[in-house]
Amino acid sequence: MKKVFLLSLIGVFTLVFTSCSDDDSVGVSNASESQIIGTWNLTALETRDGRSDTNFDGTSIPTTFTAVGKDFDTVVIFSEEPQTVTSEGSYTTVITTTVMGETSTEEETGEDFFESNEWRLNGSILYFGSGEEEIGFTITELTDSQMSLRYELDETVDFLGFETSVSATYNMTLSK
Q1: What's the pLDDT score for residue 12?
Q2: The pTM is what?
């Protein structure tokens, strides 16, 4: 049973990249597309304050989770015309979950960080994807050498036939 919970949480963690809600956090006020265009290195990746509550046939299973990236060897390229984003390389994510008082930690290797082929900027929100598959990250810092992004996840999803409420703060840092 513990393995089922862990696998469901790993799946929920990946929803950070496939969910489609906007991030309402306050971001930088002066972001410009010209600052984003170029080659960046992924240098930090973190999910904090992760909580989920899965309803298994009327039984509530609350879970907490965090994820921290390490061993970064990922390059992210933002192109201008067309506005595409690509990545190559790998990284490792250390996922720690606590379910019913039991804590476990597992490492997952990630590749092809951005699978989106489109990006756009609207104020302080950097969007990836298009249409219903679009994800908005708030730019919390943007300089010539560093860009920090935040995504606030707060959704209820159907996962493996069970209703799961998920919330977490996702942070990513890219450096030139």
Answers
A1: 42
A2: 0.80
